[in-house]
Specification:
Strand order of the largest sheet: 1-2
Number of helices: 17
Number of strands: 2
Structural class: mainly alpha
Helix content: 55-70%
Largest sheet: 2 strands, antiparallel
Shape: globular
Strand content: under 5%
Distance between the termini: 39 Å
């Protein structure tokens, strides 16, 4: 008999096999490819505009966020509300809903968080709770109409965005004490002067990072992202929410209360956006400003954050920090490039993340094709001779 020789498998090959077989490898690699392609397109655009300054501009975009502790503090400051709106949209995605109303929920949360801090003199944590409740109630509106009247949540969410903006403006204009001064009702009075206890604590981070943007907001949002991950992946409630998102009719057949879950999912998504609004404005670095022509962009910026992370709560932590990093780097590109051009470049990079879904399919096809090529043909099994019955010798 000939002994079968076992194929030699090298350690690095085993490591690569385990790496490519990991559940999140395809998603992460697709996101990385999308980021690289987006940066390349942005650089090509810079070459067309100003070839002489294009290398310096791209260098500022990619390095300014970590060039100093102060700039890194600003990255974390911008990433915190981005993380919350990204979680809001990602949570709705995982439950089969499209929360295009995150910007309205963010606006409601920001305004009522400020209202609680300025008018009611609530401490920062209570103001955040008020913002969360306000955002949740606002998110319940499209959830209710979708669950009980089968109205598409995209339509009602868009309507709620503008309604939220004008409602906040109406309350603001008719609330003495919220204005900077009676002759200027365009923006709120600063939380620093109205109620210092309403500011997010800094716990010495402002001195450590030498920046007024430093506060505990980023730690709060990371903790919430971990909690959202635990709810979605480790609880029965999260399983029911996802089951309804994958197949609403099958979940109803299985005994899951689909209408209730749709309402809860939109309320949770709205509450997350509301927290993001409060964290952004209770930092004390920006005041709420009246606008009747444009919505706050933070809610819309949460869409590419969720897409880039494939709606995974832990991935949203990384994608929000990355996009905040690009925003800070984009500010450093001025005055060589105008603010509008910086926004165009950021839009190319950020919104190219929508192609992450296509990239993930490409990566999967590549891995399958590579696996077929590298799988050796198995030899045919030896054919055993048929068993024949032997007749016994009769005595």
């Amino acid at each position: 008999m000939t002994k079968k020789t076992k194929p030699v498998v090298y350690a690095d090959r085993r490591f690569l096999d385990r790496l490519t077989a990991a559940p999140g490898f395809t998603s992460v690699s697709a996101s990385v490819i999308s980021i690289i392609v987006g940066l390349i397109l942005g650089f090509i655009l810079l070459l067309f505009i100003d070839a002489g300054s294009s290398f310096l501009g791209m260098s500022d975009l990619l390095t300014y966020g970590i060039s100093s502790a102060k700039s890194f503090a600003k990255v974390l400051y911008k990433a915190a509300p981005l993380m919350m709106t990204g979680l809001s949209i990602g949570f709705a995605f995982r439950t089969g809903l499209f929360n295009i109303g995150a910007t309205g929920q963010y606006t409601i949360g920001a305004f009522f968080g400020l209202f609680a801090a300025i008018m009611w003199k609530f401490p920062w944590w209570a103001a955040i709770l008020i913002a969360m409740l306000a955002g949740a109630l606002w998110g319940a509106i499209p959830g209710f109409f979708n669950a009980y009247f089968h109205v598409n949540e995209v339509i009602t969410s868009i309507m709620c965005n503008w309604t939220a903006l004008f409602l906040c403006n109406l309350i603001f204009m008719n609330t003495p004490g919220m204005w900077l001064n009676p002759s200027d009702r365009s923006r709120t009075i600063s939380v620093v002067t109205a109620n210092p206890s309403g500011l997010l604590p800094r716990f010495g981070l402002d001195k450590l990072l030498d920046s007024s943007y430093a506060n505990i907001g980023i730690f709060i949002t990371i903790l919430i992202a971990v909690i959202v991950y635990f709810i979605l992946e480790k609880t029965t409630f999260g399983y029911e929410l996802k089951a309804g998102g994958y197949n609403r009719h099958a979940s109803v057949y299985a005994g899951i209360k689909s209408k209730r879950n749709i309402l809860f999912a939109m309320m949770i998504a709205g509450g997350l956006s509301g927290i993001g609004g409060a964290i952004s404005y209770l930092a004390g670095t920006v005041d709420y400003t009246i606008s009747s022509t444009s919505l706050l962009p933070m809610g819309f910026n949460g869409i590419p954050v969720a897409l880039l992370a494939f709606s995974h709560p832990l991935g949203i932590i990384a994608s929000s920090v990355f996009i905040g990093y690009l925003q800070v780097g984009g500010e450093a590109m001025q005055p060589e490039f105008s603010a509008e051009m910086v926004n165009v470049i950021l839009s190319i990079i950020i919104y190219f993340s929508a192609f992450s879904l296509i990239m993930r399919g490409v990566v999967r096809k590549f891995l399958k094709r590579k696996e077929k090529k590298e799988t050796p043909d198995t030899p045919d099994a030896p054919v055993e001779p048929p068993v024949t019955e032997s007749k016994g010798v009769e005595n």
